[in-house]
Amino acid sequence: MIRKIFMVDAFAAGPFTGAPTSVVFLKDPVEKKKMAALAARTGCQETIFILPTTESFVLRFFTEIQEVPLSIHSCLAGAHLIYELGLYPPTRPLNFHTQEGEVTAQLEESAKNIALTITTQLLTKLDQARLEQFRDLAGLTPKSVAWAALTPHKLVILCLEKPELIKSAEINLGELAKAQALGLALTAPAANADCDYYLRSFLPAMGINEEHVSGSLHRSLAPHWSRLLQKKRLVCRQLSRLGGLVTLDVTDPNHLTYYGLAKTFLKGNLLSDDFKD
Hints:
By secondary structure, the protein is of the alpha+beta class.
């Protein structure tokens, strides 16, 4: 039997927006090198491989150059397809096993949004030397940065004083790829009432110059914005080339729920012998 490959726009804010994600369903486990080789050819920033088990699904995520422990937008794309293809009852939540723990997915009653729930992570303060280093990589002045922080995965976050600065920022991607960090994210309070904060994220060391839509980063960032804005429900607009919209509920100090739309835009056949039954 020939395996199918799908492409899905996750956290889409309209047609052909969001994060294009390749999705492959597996019948049996496949060697890591074979999954990595396929991910390098799909043309998407990330590819998700889904292996069904008795009561759950095991997920593996790959960028074009490496495996990553978790990709939230890929989880959304995978959940969307599982429900769309009728592989699981729409009234039952999905349990995903990832290298970073459990993710629960649930199709909402409207049959449009999918909710993903996962544990939150804490930010830590960025030291002055690294603040100056990453501020320079983004071409920012000292007065333009309101606060800076570091995620548990060593991704640097700079919050900018003015929303317009995040749109115009130009990142030295070559130097960022060599820096001792997972990447750099820029955030700022929103200028319009349709969302609460903006975000751009750059991960050249992972083969992703700029993320179309960030996912896992919100595990640390959303609780921080929740405290700053005194709001439980937040909306983030990703200011990437494709753009995307992520709605988040900081349900309690330890859990975060994402809400987003996904749209399948391509289905094809995998002709490689490595992915045939």
